[in-house]
Amino acid sequence: MMTFEKLLHGHDTVACAYYLHARDQRAKGISFERLVAEKEALRLAKVREPKVVRLGDMEFLLQPYGTASGYPLIITNREYRIEMGEFMSPSFFVTFTSEALWREGAQALHEKFIAWAASVGFTPYRDEAISRVDFSFDYHLSAVDFDEDSVVSLSNKDSQHRENGKIQTFTYGKSDIVLRLYDKVAEIEQQSNKIWFFPLWGRDSDVWRIEWQVRKPGLKRFGIYTFADLHMLQGDLLRYLAHQHDTLRQRSGDSNRSRWPLHPLWADLQARVGEFNQQGVYRVVEDAALLKEQFMRLAISVQGYMKRAAAIRGVQQKKTEPITLDETLRCVADQVAKIHDPLTWRHDVEKRMNEIRLGK
Could you give the angle at the alpha carbon of 247 between the alpha carbons of 346 and 359, nearest 5°? Predict the structure, then answer.
C-alpha cells in the first residue's frame, strides 16, 4: 500500500505585468538607449554570455537578445527575469524565479521589485496585473499507485510522458488551467537542475509534485488581478481546483470514474488547500465587463468578414457600388442556413459555453 509524506507547498512561478513610468525623465536611472546599444553589441559580437549591469540598487545580467513579443531588453538575476522596453505597454513584464519564490515569497518579491523600480526613478501609474501563477504541492511517495485514468478532470486534453518505460508526468489541460502530476526529482535531474530543492525536502528521491498552472483568464474569474487579490482569494481558486476541477481517485469496479473513492493523497491535498486564505467565494463567474469586451472583439472580427463577403458578392453580381450591410447580412444568413445543422450547433455551442465557464 502506498504511503506518502507532505513536504512543501507554495508558489513555483509568478508572472506579472507592471505599468511604470519615470517620475522625472532627467533623473531616470535606466538608459534604455544605452542598454539596447550594449545588447546589440553583444549580439553582433556573437557573444553568448550576458553582460553584468548595475541598475539602481541591484545587479543584473543583460541578455544578448530580446523577446518574441517585442520587448527589446531582458535582464535577469536570482530573483527576477525582467522584460522591458521604453515604449512598451506594460513597460515591464516580470517573472519571479522559482528559487526566490520558495526563499522569500511572492509578496516580498513584489515589494522588493517596486522598491527597485523606485531606485531607478520609476513609479506605478496603475495596478500591477498578474498573468500566471503556478501552485505546487510536493509529496514523498513510497510508490505510485495511480495512472492517467485515476484523475477525474474538467479538462478535455490529457497526456503522459514516459522515460525508459516508467511514467514520469501526467498532464491535464493545455490552456488557462493545467494540472501536472510528475516525478520532480527526475525533472530536476533531466531539465531544471534545481538541486536546492533537496535540502528543502530533506531527501533527494521519490518526490512527486502536484502542480496547477493558472493563467490570466483563470485568475480573473476569481477576481485575482493584483498581489493583494492573490493573497486574499487564492484559497477560493485552489478550493475550486482541488474539489471541482480535478480530483485523484482510487480505482474501483464502478464504470463511472467520478464515483470512485477519493485517493488519500488527494484528501490530504484538499486539507492543505484549506490552509490558504479563503473568502467563501466559489468563483467570480464570468465578469460581465470581460464578456462584453470579448463580444466586442468578436463583433469587430465579424465586421471584417462581412466586408469581405460584401466584396465577393459585389464582384459576383458585377455591382458598380458596394452592397449595403443589410443586403450582405441577408446573403450570409441564406448561405449559413444551407449548411446549418441544429444538432451540431447545439453540441458545439454547449461545448464553447463550457469552455468559457472553465477558462479553456
Answer: 45
pLDDT, residue 26, reads 58
- Confidence (pLDDT) at 136: 95
Phi/psi for 325 (5° steps) reads -65, -45
- Position 284 confidence tier, pLDDT thresholds 50, 70, 90: very low
Angle between helices 325-339 and 288-316 (to 10 degrees): 100
Range 219-240 average pLDDT: 95
Q: Residue-wise over 296-315: b if at least 16 C-beta within 10 A, else e?
A: eeeeeeeeeeeeebbeebbe
Confidence bin at 66 (pLDDT 50/70/90): very high
Amino acid identity of residue 120, one-letter, is: V
Please give the grid coordinates belonging to residue 237.
481558486
**CB contact at 8 A, 273 and 238:** yes
- Please say if the pLDDT value at position 359 is more than 70: no
Position 321 pLDDT exceeds 80: yes
What cell does 269 get?
Answer: 491535498
C-alpha cell recorded at residue 139: 509529496
Which sign does the torsion angle of CA 250, 256, 258, 260 carry?
A: negative
Residue of 274, 177, 179 lying closest to 224 (CA atoms): 177
Q: Is the pTM of this model over 0.90?
A: no
Where do runs of H (alpha helix) occur along 317-341? 325-339
Query: Which grid coordinates belong to 133?
Result: 501563477
Q: Which residue, among 5, 246, 3, has the nearest Cα to 135 in the 3D structure? A: 246
Give the whole-angstrom CA distance, residue 202 versus residue 286: 42
